[in-house]
Amino acid sequence: MKVGQKVRVRSFKDNVSKDVAGKVGEVGVIKEEKIVDGGGWGYIVTFPDNRSTWFFSDELELVAY
């Protein structure tokens, strides 16, 4: 996954707030890469409502538009 690509939220590894949990199935755009615990990659995703949050890479799937 790369900055600028569209992604859909698939699921969450951990418990999240209601606001974030409501993003399952929504499509957003990767705005930034983020190194997460253990040296893995995560991504900061911005949604059409201008909210942003970060996700582990396996919580997202690429969207082909």
What Rg is obtained from the alpha carbons, in whole angstroms?
Answer: 11 Å
The helix content, as a percent range, equals under 10%
Shape: globular
Supply the helix-strand structural class: mainly beta
Overall number of structural domains: 1
Number of strands: 5
Instruction: Summarize the biggest pleated sheet.
Output: 5 strands, antiparallel
Give the neighbour order of strands across the main sheet: 4-3-2-1-5
Mean pLDDT: 85
State which percent range the strand residues make up: 35-45%
Low-pLDDT regions: none
Strand/helix succession: EHEEEE
What can you tell me about this protein's structure?
This is Cytochrome b6f subunit family protein. This protein is mainly beta and 65 residues long. The protein has one domain (6-62). 6% of the residues lie in helices and 42% in strands. The protein has 1 helix and 5 strands, in the order βαββββ. It has a 5-stranded antiparallel sheet with strand order 4-3-2-1-5, with no helix packed on it. The radius of gyration is 11 Å and the shape is globular. The mean pLDDT is 85.
